[in-house]
Design a protein that fits this description.
five-stranded antiparallel sheet; 354 residues; single chain; 1 helix; 3% helix; mainly beta
């Protein structure tokens, strides 16, 4: 299908993003300003309604491995995007760019198979833009350039986040003031942003302290070599991935180090800390269950965790069990850079509109 043309104002707004750093105040508005997500089924060539919000949002293939997402009525400048490949073979997806087109948010996505060739894949994509607050819990994000300069950011305390390029492909991101109380708390999602080549970003580690959250991010190219690239990073603690809580009432997150991280990195909004579970479903496969939060429309995002170029995604679509109701991620699948299944660390975040 031919690529859709965007309005001239959208193209211009993408160019302008590189020149501006947005520091937001917690006194301006509620969190978030805009949010949305889409679940794309490559087999059926359509979005999955239970994993897509707002209703009427769409995905259009541009060319093999490239997609354009429209989140209706959620257009806003800046913000962050996260995307997770859904494929039973080794694939990853990354953001190409995004921006406002009239009332809508337009996101361009690229998906790759192991080895670095663009390839078709199902995926889950998420967008949020926040400018107000305070959020009901510690929450923040950055959209970092390859050099560490920030295109945009949000911090629920109103403090200024920073991203520092320590060396090739290695970044230190600080969320000052986002204090959760322990030494490893909450959860993170990271996504590479690159319109020119295959790129992946992951969480190397992070430290929670009395001054905030200090996060080390690693980014790689398709060959598994460290790469300077633009990326997005979101931190959440006892709030949803879009910064709000009650509503939504149903959300959760989980750190697999492996094994599972401390209870403070395992939150279920209904049952509290430590309630979500993980079991091995085979080499490189982890079944994660979020009890009692399976209410649509919902979204799931996954990010690899650790110091190597391993990457993670979803083996297939999550299920919304009616017996719990439990949200079942079957499974998180993880791979070496060469595409071999491997047991490795990851973070997973599940979020509902309710």
């Amino acid at each position: 299908m031919p690529r859709l043309s965007l309005p001239a104002r959208f193209a211009a707004s993408l160019l302008m993003l590189a020149g501006f750093l947005t520091v937001v105040s917690p006194a301006e508005a509620a969190v978030p300003d805009r949010k949305g997500w889409a679940l794309w089924n490559q087999t059926s060539g359509s979005v999955v309604p239970s994993g897509t919000w707002p209703v009427g949002s769409s995905v259009i293939p541009i060319s093999p491995g490239r997609y354009q997402v429209k989140l209706v009525g959620q257009g806003a400048p800046q913000g962050v995007v996260h995307v997770t490949a859904i494929n039973n073979t080794p694939h990853w997806c990354q953001a190409e760019n995004w921006g406002q087109s009239g009332a809508d948010e337009i996101i361009n996505i690229r998906c790759y198979r192991a080895g670095g060739a663009l390839d078709v894949s199902s995926f889950s994509v998420f967008f949020v833009r926040a400018s107000g607050g305070p959020a009901p819990g510690p929450y923040g994000y950055v959209d970092s350039s390859a050099t560490g300069a920030l295109f945009s950011q949000y911090n629920s305390t109103g403090a200024g986040n920073t991203s520092t390029n320590l060396s090739v492909g290695q970044y230190e991101v600080k969320f000052p003031g986002l204090v959760a109380g322990g030494t490893l708390d909450g959860s993170l999602q990271a996504t590479a942003v690159n319109p020119q080549q295959g790129a992946r970003c992951k969480i190397r580690n992070w430290v929670s302290s009395g001054s905030g959250q200090d996060v080390n991010v690693l980014c790689f190219n398709a060959a598994g070599a460290l790469l300077n690239t633009r990326f997005t990073l979101t931190y959440q603690y006892k709030v949803s991935l879009y910064g709000a809580a009650v509503p939504p009432k149903y959300y959760g997150y989980f750190l697999n180090q492996p094994p599972a991280g401390p209870p403070s990195t395992n939150l279920n909004s209904i049952l509290g800390l430590g309630a979500n579970t993980i079991i091995s479903a085979g080499l490189g496969l982890s079944l994660v269950t979020f009890p009692r939060i399976a209410f649509t429309q919902n979204t799931v995002q996954v990010t690899a965790y650790g110091s190597n170029p391993n990457f993670c995604g979803l083996n297939t679509f999550w299920t919304n069990s009616t017996s719990g109701p439990d949200l079942i991620v079957r499974d998180v699948n993880c791979f070496t850079n060469a595409g071999a299944p491997v047991n490795t660390g990851f973070t997973v975040s599940a979020n509902s509109i309710l």
